[in-house]
Amino acid sequence: MKATIKWVDNAMFLGESGSGHSVVMDGPEDHGGRNMGVRPMEMLLLGLGGCTSFDVMSILTKQRQQVTDCQAQIEASRADTVPSVFTDIHIHFVVTGKALKPAAVERAVALSAEKYCSASIMLEQGGVNIRHSFEVIDEQ
């Protein structure tokens, strides 16, 4: 896996993935940026959310659950000192569907957290406390 980060100006960078997709990263105005892109630490949270959401949806699809929507809502806390690493992350899944089995959703979230989500497991091994929760919304 490869990626390239190119400086644009001030605190703005263009990241390009090995698969050819690009994203703008920028800092806030009080740190030399123009607030025109995602912050790098936000990008880490987005990557974590994407990784675990991919797992959860893959598992639920294999279990033939009728999911119509899935959101991972993420809240994170960072250390007050430099480096201001993530200390705690809470990932809350809101899964909507028809006749969903809460036990299936619970298992999918647990399997992602404990076995499949490389991003989550890597961050936990680095000392980040990650909590998971979920809710099921029945769409009738």
From TrEMBL:
Pfam families: OsmC. It comes from the Bacteria. SUPFAM superfamilies: OsmC-like. InterPro entries: KH_dom-like_a/b, OsmC/Ohr_fam, OsmC/Ohrsf. PANTHER family: PROTEIN YHFA (PTHR34352:SF1). This is Osmotically inducible protein C. It comes from Bacterioplanes sanyensis.
